[in-house]
Amino acid sequence: MGPIPDDLHQALEEWHTTYRRLAVQPRTALRRRLIQLSAEVLFHPHWAGERTPAASALYAAGRGARCRAAANS
User: What is the distance between the alpha carbons of residues 6 and 10, in angstroms, rounded to a whole number?
Assistant: First the structure.
């Protein structure tokens, strides 16, 4: 996966700024903006590439933990 595109970087920076503002002064408009930015970041085409080995390992570890928990129930 290559470097983070400028528009994704901008959305991430704005997400952090909005989150900090929301923590100080809770407002509906800020919550809505945070939700919108979260969707932009999460569904950005940059993430549509192949999984990195680190991401695959995290996914496998999480799946293994859920399977073990279900087996112990």
Answer: 6
Query: For the residues of the chain, what is the DSSP string, one character each?
Result: --PPPHHHHHHHHHHHHHHHHHHHS--HHHHHHHHHHHHHHHT-GGGGSPPPHHHHHHHHHHHHHHHHHHHH-
Query: How many residues are recorded in the chain?
Result: 73
Cα–Cα distance measured from residue 25 to residue 35, given in angstroms and rounded to the nearest whole number: 16
Question: pTM of the prediction?
Answer: 0.64
CA-to-CA dists, residue 17 to 11, 12, 71, 72, angstroms = 10, 9, 42, 42
pLDDT per residue over 44-65, tens digit each? 888 777 666 766 776 777 776 6
